[in-house]
Write a sequence for this structure.
């Protein structure tokens, strides 16, 4: 755990007692802060008490005594309406921040020789894969890489910082909204497509949140920016005009000068005097498809900024084991293969797995994002049958009507069992693909819990088949 510095003797209200909030509360207390923890869920309150954290009803508290509010990134800051804790804090003149901001201030309070390198990765899609991939490259190069943020461990739950460490952080737009002083040695922006618009008041707010990853950068820092969509192209142009840092454009679709790009799976480095071939990504089993070529280009460009040699980066790209819940093959029962793409929480993310699979039985649904699955219409011809779950099931059914066969299943277990039975009965090689194109919050705590549930259901099916045939 990282001990938070700069808050000794201060009183901090902590709202939201999931993984991030609990870790932040402990890290604040370790640094000498006095915390008052609260969550509207009784089970979360009990979990905090079990860990010895002080639980205080913030609805009845005097907010004038607090110096700061540590807000969970899942709690609305501005839209659709500010959460009541935000309103109370603003009325009392209390600063509002997130755990990444605590991390940033702890770095600032550390002697320069003891400060780690920070790699900050954001984008609508590909963040987790790129974060895990960059962490893998760093470790293969012998660096002490700590990987966390919006993936795996919360940032303050990572190991205590030191001068030789590299913190590779996935940052969501929610986290960036609560961060003001983070200075990333390398900041990566992978892509921007419409997402979380209700939480940011529209596209302008969402883009502004993503751009915050570059704030505070200066000479000696590196900005890695995709130029494969119009939003990122505009941001790249702005950064080039500012001329305060090293800019490394990346692309997975065209050749670019002074950057890193992939064409037909071949990764090229054009950051030097001459362009050189780096790696044939067709041989990187965990990085299939154009979207992963973009992830590889971004991770490569960031690794270069750390002084890692191109050949070592290329070797690490080949040995990358992949990411759980992202186009993850769980196994096969007979001629039926199961693929866990639970991390596909919007249509654009689902497109990646759907495009990589010729024909599949599609488990989709949950809490829908803006636009639903209509943008995937060109891929409906690949759907052998859709098994629809969650709040979005009926809306998705209307979109699919007349374009692909479907059945309303309600929950994930029903959908998985039906998909397997239909696939097994076909007598052909089949793929059952969980790629929901939705958030998970209607039935699961997060996409990880949803993916783990799918894994358990598949394991149960496999066990049942083995017993029946044994």
């Amino acid at each position: 755990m990282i001990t938070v510095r700069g808050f000794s003797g201060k009183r901090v209200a902590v709202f939201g007692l999931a993984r991030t909030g609990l870790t932040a509360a402990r890290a604040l207390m370790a640094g000498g802060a006095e915390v008052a923890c609260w969550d509207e869920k009784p089970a979360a309150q009990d979990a905090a008490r079990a860990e010895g954290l002080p639980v205080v009803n913030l609805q009845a508290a005097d907010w004038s005594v607090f110096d700061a509010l540590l807000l969970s990134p899942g709690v609305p800051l501005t839209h659709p309406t500010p959460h009541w804790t935000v309103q109370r804090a603003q009325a009392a003149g209390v600063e509002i921040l997130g755990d990444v901001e605590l991390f940033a201030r702890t770095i600032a309070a550390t002697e320069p020789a003891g400060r780690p390198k920070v790699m900050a990765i954001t984008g609508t899609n590909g963040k987790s894969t790129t974060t895990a991939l960059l962490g893998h490259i760093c470790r293969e190069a012998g660096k002490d890489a700590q990987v966390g943020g919006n993936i795996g461990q919360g940032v303050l739950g990572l190991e205590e910082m030191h001068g030789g460490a590299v913190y590779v952080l996935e940052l969501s737009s929610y986290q960036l909204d609560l961060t003001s002083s983070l200075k990333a040695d390398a900041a990566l922006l992978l892509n921007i497509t419409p997402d979380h618009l209700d939480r940011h008041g529209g596209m302008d707010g969402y883009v502004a949140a993503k751009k915050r990853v570059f704030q505070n950068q200066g000479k000696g820092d590196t900005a890695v920016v995709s130029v494969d969509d119009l939003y990122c192209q505009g941001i790249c142009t702005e950064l080039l005009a500012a001329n305060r840092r090293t800019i490394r454009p990346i692309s997975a679709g065209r050749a670019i000068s002074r950057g890193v790009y992939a064409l037909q799976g071949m990764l090229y480095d054009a950051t030097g005097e001459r362009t050189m071939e780096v790696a044939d990504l067709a041989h990187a089993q965990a990085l299939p498809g154009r979207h992963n070529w973009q992830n590889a280009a971004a991770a490569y460009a960031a690794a270069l900024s750390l002084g890692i040699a191109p050949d070592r980066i290329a070797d690490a790209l080949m040995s990358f084991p992949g990411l759980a819940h992202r186009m993850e093959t769980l196994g096969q029962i007979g001629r039926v293969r199961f693929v866990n793409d639970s991390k596909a929480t919007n249509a654009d993310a689902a497109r990646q797995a759907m495009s990589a699979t010729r024909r599949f039985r599609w488990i989709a649904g949950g809490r829908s994002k803006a636009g639903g699955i209509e943008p995937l219409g060109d891929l409906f011809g690949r759907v052998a049958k859709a098994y629809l779950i969650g709040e979005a099931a009926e809306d998705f059914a209307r979109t699919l009507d007349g374009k692909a066969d479907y059945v309303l299943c309600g929950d994930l277990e029903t959908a998985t069992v039906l998909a397997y039975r239909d696939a097994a009965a076909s007598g052909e090689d089949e793929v059952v693909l969980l790629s929901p194109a939705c958030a998970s919050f209607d039935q699961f705590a997060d996409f990880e819990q949803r993916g783990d549930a799918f894994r358990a259901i598949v394991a149960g099916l496999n066990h049942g088949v083995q017993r029946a045939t044994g």
Observations:
- The chain has three domains: 11-97, 100-319, 328-469.
